[in-house]
Design a protein that fits this description.
Chain lengths: 170, 246
């Protein structure tokens, strides 16, 4: 009964993380099922009160194992700091872009895996830095630097995609 | 125009991860730094977009019910429980298996079988997630929980003051009939109090004994049968009995 009370309420969080890591709904559902089963079987080992972070850690590891087997290229992509735009977009510009769900979704998908992971955990799941560190295994310092670069990258992708759209309309 | 401030400080401020002192320092800086102000506004715009855009991928109803079914069958299936290898409590699993094996080898009178089943039920309850269906120290929560689930309502009291806290309750099956199981703690020990109508058993259970490392203490009161099972001492069980039926 305790599993249902403590862990099951975080099923949506599990589903959200898996979906953004694995991209397709079918893969994400398989991963979530596997992770939930693993969480149930290992529930005896759960100590403390952070059930969401504990579950998401299992989900994350399940997804990474999956990715290692089927999409290993995902693990290779790192930030390459090319700067197409030298000027920073205005906040208003970002606001406009960010209100376009399709653009935003695409931009998020274009982020490298680890960058995407921390943005999803921070912005969609509203995890603290400490929780993100627990889930991903990154030290907090790495969480912070990955997050700041990921956000800048997102802003840049949004800017570039809008520039492309504008030029294709000419 | 390049702000000297560490980028991560700005992000940490935005995420409310700076302590009060550093946050105050940053706010002072903000008053003079238009670059940081603009950055913060950009981050806000990004955040608003991400949160408003319905990007959160919650579990579909189908996935939700699939998971619920899977977990239900995990908790029911006895075979699966022994198959997987979990280093953390593999020793416990083996110990339980041995204890159960020992029980099967003993000769049984009817009451002997009843005692075995009670101890068996106690051992089963010690496994993950099997101890309580209703988990509460409040007798006013636990007692009514049984209503409608059994043909009788067991007496339920919490004895935390005397060192026997009520941990919760569950339904169990012993000797082919439904029993109420009330779970008490005694320091690090778990005590199961099994309660059922005396009419359900052909043989009354009176007395004490020990089997496979567990002590049991049974008695009849009114038309109900009671039995305590635990690895706590028989003295502890006697004390608890005295509290339940002074």
């Amino acid at each position: 009964m305790r599993f249902e009370q403590l862990v099951l309420p975080h099923l949506d969080a599990a589903s959200n993380l898996a979906r953004w890591l694995l991209r397709t709904p079918a893969d994400a559902e398989d991963a979530v099922q596997e992770a939930m089963l693993r969480a149930y079987r290992f529930f005896q080992t759960f100590r403390g009160t952070e059930a969401r972070a504990w579950l998401l850690q299992i989900v994350r590891n399940t997804c990474y194992t999956w990715i290692e087997k089927r999409m290993p290229a995902e693990l290779m992509t790192e930030f390459n700091e090319e700067l197409h735009t030298t000027s920073s977009p205005t906040p208003e510009f970002i606001a406009i872009q960010a209100n376009n769900r399709k653009q935003l979704s695409r931009a998020l998908e274009l982020l490298p895996l680890r960058a995407r992971e921390v943005v999803v955990l921070r912005e969609l799941e509203e995890c603290s830095y400490k929780e993100i560190s627990t889930v991903t295994g990154m030290p907090i310092g790495t969480v912070m630097s990955t997050l700041s670069r990921a956000r800048e990258r997102l802003a840049r992708i949004l800017t570039e995609s809008s520039a492309r759209e504008a030029s294709s309309e000419l | 125009m390049n702000c000297e401030l560490n980028a991560t400080t700005l992000h940490a401020y935005f995420d409310n991860e700076l302590d009060a002192v550093r946050a105050a320092d940053f706010e002072l800086h903000l008053k003079q730094c238009s670059e940081c102000s603009a950055s913060l506004n950009r981050l806000s715009a990004l955040r608003d977009g991400l949160r408003k855009s319905d990007l959160y991928q919650a579990a579909s109803p189908r996935l939700r019910s699939q998971i619920a079914q899977q977990i239900a069958s995990e908790s029911r299936g006895t075979g699966l429980r022994w198959k997987f290898w979990v280093p953390a409590f593999s020793v416990t699993v083996i110990a339980i298996a041995i204890a159960a094996g020992v029980l099967f080898l003993q000769p049984h009178s009817h009451s002997g079988r009843l005692q075995s089943e009670l101890i068996d039920a106690h051992i089963r309850s010690l496994q993950a997630n099997h101890l309580t269906d209703v988990q509460s120290t409040d007798q006013h929560t636990v007692k009514p929980w049984f209503d409608g689930k059994l043909e009788f309502i067991p007496p339920v009291s919490d004895f935390s003051q005397q060192g026997f806290p009520l941990l919760g309750g569950r339904l169990d099956v012993v000797d082919g009939h439904n029993v109420a199981a009330l779970v008490y703690g005694r320091r690090k020990h778990v005590i199961n109090l099994f309660v059922w109508p005396a009419a359900d058993s052909s043989v009354p259970l009176n007395g004490t004994g020990a089997r496979a490392g567990y002590n049991w203490l049974g008695w009849k009161a009114g038309d109900m049968q009671f039995c305590l099972v635990s690895d706590a001492s028989s003295e502890d069980l006697r004390q608890l009995q005295a509290l339940i039926h002074p």
